[in-house]
Design a protein that fits this description.
Layout (H helix, E strand, L loop, with lengths): L1 H24 L3 E2 L5 E5 L4 E9 L3 E3 L8 E3 L36 E6 L5 E6 L4 E3 L8 E3 L14 E5 L5 E5 L9 E4 L2 E4 L4 E3 L22 E2 L8 E3 L5 E3 L8 E3 L9 E3 L9 E3 L26 H6 L4 E5 L2 E5 L2 H7 L4 E3 L5 E3 L4 H33 L13 E2 L10 E8 L6 E6 L5 E7 L3 E8 L6 E9 L2 E10 L1
Parallel strand pairs: 1-3, 4-5, 8-9, 17-18, 19-20
Antiparallel strand pairs: 2-3, 3-4, 6-7, 7-8, 10-11, 12-13, 13-14, 15-16, 16-17, 21-22, 23-24, 25-26, 26-29, 27-28, 27-30, 30-31
Length: about 475
């Protein structure tokens, strides 16, 4: 008994060793990544499949955005997914996507391109859209549509039966002539029905046009004559006129009650607003004396005019001149009108009375200055020693300074044709006080530059003196 037990043990151990070696020979090996579903990469090895599961299933992607997310990874002509049930009683694809209480326009099915253009959309409310993201009917097609069984040769019409089925039908042709006639308020078709027009309406009743109305060279007239509104084939409109030279023409007097805008929207601030240029042979400003009250003369016009600065500016790439409206408003508020949207309007004609009075004021100053110059000339002549022996020539003279009025500097031209001992140009104020003397050394024409930066604004005189004889005197204005 003891020998048998040892033999049994020895045989068991040999079998165990052989079995263990066989098992090691058939073991499966391999490794994978987290969340990847494993697959056999060989008969005894495993690795990652293209299916990724992190609570959302991804096929071809490790970043699924939806419960089932399939990515092809690159451009391909093959289908992304394919369902094929060839069973005699098999069914296709069932999608239950919307809870009954969800919003009716939620999508059950939506097909779109990679650039997010919706090609097919099925909503929970039963509306289906083709090429639209917002179907407005049970079937809404954005674009052309074709129903093959309604095709065929010849002109057909589409009809529907009580069940709503569509079919095509040849358009019936009635060889009997039908006549449309009106008798009083009764509109009828011979051999057909009649319609009673509402009392007091025109013969055609009150209708809304559903297509373009062709006048065919006739007028819209109140009494049937050739007058009223005429619209020709090119679309030009004439009031009592058949002219086609303009888009809109009126023959006769015209009265417009309300704001009018030409090439711009009407503005209640103005009776007429024109966005671009306008031209008229004559333009008169309406004047009704009984509407004018508290008339007063304009004072200090020249002071106000001197406060203005003319400017140039570009408007629609066109250089124009004018005034800054906001600055004009501070000096001449009565010449400014501002619209509700902040646009300024300047009454340029309103400057004429101010300019008229300013010129009158300036002319009065000029007359006064001329009188002072005449008195000054006599004073200067009396202060100079007159050399009676000199023979002056008419061609010895002074030129008017340029520019005049002047601000920073000015130029005085002169001409001396006779020989001399001494010659100079003297600059004096209106009291006869000499400010500066400019000596001349040569016979002939010349110019003297005068620096005005050291001289106060005012009226001055300058004289050409040759050998202590005043030959010519002129005045200059310094701003």
């Amino acid at each position: 008994m003891k020998k048998i037990s040892l033999l049994s043990i020895a045989l068991f151990l040999c079998f165990a060793v052989i079995s263990t070696k066989a098992q090691k020979t058939n073991m499966i090996s391999g490794s994978g990544s987290v969340n990847h579903v494993a697959k056999f990469t060989g008969s005894t090895t495993i690795g990652n499949s293209s299916i990724y599961d992190n609570g959302k299933i991804g096929i071809g992607t490790t970043n699924p955005q939806y419960k089932l997310h399939v990515e092809t990874g690159s451009f391909t002509n093959d289908w992304t997914a394919y369902f094929n049930n060839q069973s005699a009683y098999g069914k296709g694809l069932l999608i239950k996507a919307v809870y009954p209480g969800a919003a009716p326009n939620n999508s059950i099915l939506q097909l779109q391109t990679v650039d997010n253009l919706v090609r097919l959309k099925v909503q929970a409310n039963g509306k289906v859209g083709i090429n639209t993201d917002n179907p407005q009917a049970n079937l809404h097609v954005n674009g052309s549509a074709r129903i093959t069984n309604l095709g065929g040769t010849g002109t057909k019409m589409v009809v529907t039966n009580n069940a709503g089925d569509l079919s095509k039908q040849t358009i019936p042709i009635n060889t009997d002539e039908q006549t449309l006639s009106i008798s009083g308020n009764n509109l009828s078709i011979s051999g057909g029905n009649s319609v009673t027009l509402p009392s007091g309406a025109d013969n055609l009743g009150n209708h809304t046009a559903t297509q373009n109305v062709k006048l065919n060279g006739y007028w819209l007239s109140g009494d049937g004559d050739n007058e009223g509104v005429f619209i020709n084939s090119s679309g030009t409109v004439g009031i009592n006129s058949t002219s086609n030279n303009y888009s809109f023409s009126v023959y006769g007097d015209t009265h417009i009650d309300g704001p009018v805008g030409i090439l711009t929207s009407p503005d209640a601030t103005y009776d007429l607003k024109i966005s671009y240029d306008a031209i008229a042979h004559k333009w008169y400003e309406y004047f009704k004396s009984e509407n004018f009250k508290d008339m007063q003369n304009i004072d200090n016009a020249i002071t106000k005019i001197n406060s203005l600065n003319g400017i140039t500016y570009t408007n629609n790439n066109i250089k124009e001149v004018g005034f800054n409206a906001s600055k004009v408003e501070k000096i001449f508020p009565e010449l400014i009108k501002k619209s509700s949207n902040g646009e300024y309007g300047i009454d340029y004609n309103g400057f004429i009375p101010y300019l008229t009075e300013a010129i009158k004021e300036q002319q009065s100053q000029i007359n006064e200055l001329n009188n002072k110059i005449n008195r000054l000339s006599k004073i200067i002549e009396s202060k100079l020693t007159i050399n009676k022996s000199r023979n002056t020539i008419d061609s010895d003279y002074l030129e008017q300074n340029i520019p005049n009025p002047s601000k920073n500097k000015t130029t005085i031209g002169y001409m001396l044709n006779s020989t001399f001992n001494t010659a100079y140009i003297t600059l004096n104020d209106l009291s006869g006080n000499e400010i500066k003397k400019y000596y001349i050394s040569n016979v002939g024409s010349g110019k003297v530059q005068v620096d005005l930066n050291v001289i106060d604004s005012g009226i001055y005189t300058y004289s050409l003196v040759i050998d202590n004889t005043i030959i010519d005197t002129k005045k200059m204005i310094v701003n």
